[in-house]
């Protein structure tokens, strides 16, 4: 555990909780892509199957359970409790265009051709692109609530901090994992455009809106 | 081949 890893995890946790609270407090999931949230629930489910097979630490187990629990709670709020506020018309990204290629890639490029390992690889690849329906929705509506941009910033920051974590681990522990690193770079790059808008607009007190 | 990290990350 190093400082980048810890702050990355906390940033991830903050993102998840910001989104849950935003939906809960406003009693609305307007502007939130339910498809991205389903993908994240799928990511956590397929990655944390090792909860049944290996124990790493109390921290590790607790965080996994919190992430999974919050992911499903978010999906429940969007598709059940506050379904009436869900903006399905603007959430029109075709997720099969992500899930099918990612599934194929995880079968082709993995560390070990075993079910758990392939599912772990699938989760890593899928996470890297799971935010695309949300970004697509924002580009379609041309705007995002400020609280939604805070969520996206924390979520993007998390993987960027993991990149520093992996550099740290490579130098000090000799660890590297090409699958996680390449996917993590892709994931972080997808947020770059958003990071720019966040810094130049949201942090200066303006609402995030895209030119028509 | 790829060297694999221990799966202690989230």
Automatic annotation (TrEMBL), chain A:
GO terms for cellular component: COPI-coated vesicle membrane; endoplasmic reticulum membrane; Golgi membrane
Transmembrane feature ranges: 65-82, 119-138, 150-168, 174-199
Entry-linked InterPro entries: ER_ret_rcpt
GO biological process: protein retention in ER lumen; protein transport; vesicle-mediated transport
Signal sequence annotation: none
Localization annotation: Cytoplasmic vesicle, COPI-coated vesicle membrane; Endoplasmic reticulum membrane; Golgi apparatus membrane
Family label: Belongs to the ERD2 family.
Name of the protein described by the UniProt record: ER lumen protein-retaining receptor
Organism ancestry: Eukaryota, Metazoa, Chordata, Craniata, Vertebrata
Gene: LOC102215457
């Amino acid at each position: 555990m190093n400082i980048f890893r810890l702050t990355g995890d906390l940033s991830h946790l903050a993102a998840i909780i910001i989104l849950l609270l935003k939906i809960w407090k406003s009693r609305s999931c307007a502007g939130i892509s339910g498809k991205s949230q389903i993908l994240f629930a799928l990511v956590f489910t397929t990655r944390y199957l090792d909860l049944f097979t290996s124990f790493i630490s109390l921290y590790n187990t607790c965080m996994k359970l919190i992430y999974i629990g919050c992911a499903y709670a978010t999906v429940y709020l969007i598709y059940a409790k506050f379904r009436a506020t869900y903006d399905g018309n603007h959430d029109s990204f075709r997720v099969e265009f992500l899930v099918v290629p990612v599934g194929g890639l995880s079968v082709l490029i993995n560390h070990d051709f075993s079910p758990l390992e392939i599912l772990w690889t699938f989760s890593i690849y899928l996470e890297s692109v799971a935010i695309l329906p949300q970004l697509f929705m924002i580009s379609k509506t041309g705007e995002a609530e400020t609280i939604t941009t805070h969520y996206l910033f924390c979520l993007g920051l998390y993987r960027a901090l993991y990149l520093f974590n992996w550099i740290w681990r490579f130098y000090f522990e000799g660890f590297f994992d090409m699958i996680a690193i390449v996917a993590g770079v892709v994931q972080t790059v997808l947020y770059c455009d958003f990071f720019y808008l966040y810094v130049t607009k949201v942090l200066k007190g303006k609402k995030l809106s895209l030119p028509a | 081949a790829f060297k694999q990290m221990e799966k202690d990350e989230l």
